[in-house]
Amino acid sequence: MDMAMMRLRREDPRVVGSFRLHRRLGAGGMGVVYLGSDKRGQRVALKVIRPDLAEDQEFRSRFAREVAAARRIRGGCTARLVAADLEADRPWFATQYVPGPSLHDKVAGEGPLTAAEVAAVGAALSEGLVAVHEAGVVHRDLKPSNILLSPKGPRIIDFGIAWATGASTLTHVGTAVGSPGFLAPEQVRGAAVTPATDVFSLGATLAYAATGDSPFGHGSSEVMLYRVVHEAPQLHSVPNALAPLVHACLAKDPEERPSTLQLSLRLKEIAAREAQGLADVRPPGRRGEPDRPSGRLAEQYAEQRTVRRTQGPGTPPPRSNGSRSGARPTPTPTPRATNRSGSRPAPRSGAGRPAPRTTGAGRRPANPRLLRQRLFVFVVVTLLVALGIAAAQGCQGPARGLGDEGVRKDGRPEQAYAPLPGDPTAAYSRGKPNQDG
């Protein structure tokens, strides 16, 4: 931020009110912004109104109302109003100085933000807009260059003042790069602005943060304003986790846009989920399942996915589109391994199902209890087979002794039997003829 500061020019004042000016921070449609400090060393961003606007009495009265409303804003996501002088020859106001680049400069210099970063920034901005709207102020000019990324989080600047002159300020749109792509349709038509106006601008800002471009492309101010009113936004490059919410913010009808409170809650959920998904290296999913994180986040990630995807109690989570039909479900020994009470775990249903633990390389280790059970079954079956074979051999032994079974010369067994009195075959014994006969 300090690198972008410019030296004071010859025509610039050196002292405004009780603040000493040091550098130029920028210039816009309303005036010039300076870096100043008070006697205690507190740094402020001080904006001095342009001379032509200072002579407009209507502007002065409306400007006074907006400054009075801005004093009531209480929120950590806004640059606090420090002082103002509405009766000076050139009215001015000073806000808390926020160190850090603007969202526009951040994306232009380093590229689009990740889905988790966009959701986190959007959640903070939505919460800040809640405080702004509760004070009766509509920002009217929310855009990437009016959002500063400080070490403590994003901050909104120029709230409720940049568009205080109403429709006539449309002539100054071209002074800020990309501004036409962040105006709401009702602003272009000259209709009344509401908090929903800021929601539209926030949606366009989030799209820019995620893609590095305005959702309505590039072109002259007239072309951009026409697209805002009549054409659908281009959100092809917006991450899937954010696209539905951004699309809702960019609805042409203000009544169809979500509230800032709804945005804040929803974006916090998305930021938490995306942060968990990106916090660790995720191995490829098994059997076409979506990628899951490995390590300590596996159970938390799987539990959140189960709660999010379960439609009702007892309904198993659906398989992903990439899963093969007929594939076997995930085996249940892993949940039983975590049940140390000895009781049989409940069948898998919607929420609360623990996920199988994985190693850092993404491979599931063998379950010791399952291995012991399989080894025990194998030993028992082996012993039973051995006992059966032994019993069969024991039964065959006595049969030979009693029946004295022999084998004929042709190789076929000869059944032995006890001779009966008068039997002509009694002369044979063990298949041999009686030598006395």
TrEMBL record:
Residues 19-270 form the Protein kinase domain. InterPro entries: Kinase-like_dom_sf, Prot_kinase_dom, Protein_kinase_ATP_BS, Ser/Thr_kinase_AS. ATP binds at residue 47. This is Serine/threonine protein kinase. Residues 402-413 have a biased composition (Basic and acidic residues). One of its GO terms (molecular function) is protein serine/threonine kinase activity. The keyword Cytoplasm does not apply. Keywords: ATP-binding, Kinase, Membrane, Nucleotide-binding, Serine/threonine-protein kinase, Transferase, Transmembrane, Transmembrane helix. Residues 335-357 have a biased composition (Low complexity). PROSITE patterns: PROTEIN_KINASE_ATP, PROTEIN_KINASE_DOM, PROTEIN_KINASE_ST. Residues 275-366, 395-437 are annotated as: Disordered. It comes from Streptomyces colonosanans. The lineage of its organism: Bacteria, Bacillati, Actinomycetota, Actinomycetes, Kitasatosporales. The keyword Cell inner membrane does not apply. Gene3D superfamilies: Phosphorylase Kinase, domain 1, Transferase(Phosphotransferase) domain 1. The chain crosses the membrane at residues 375-392.
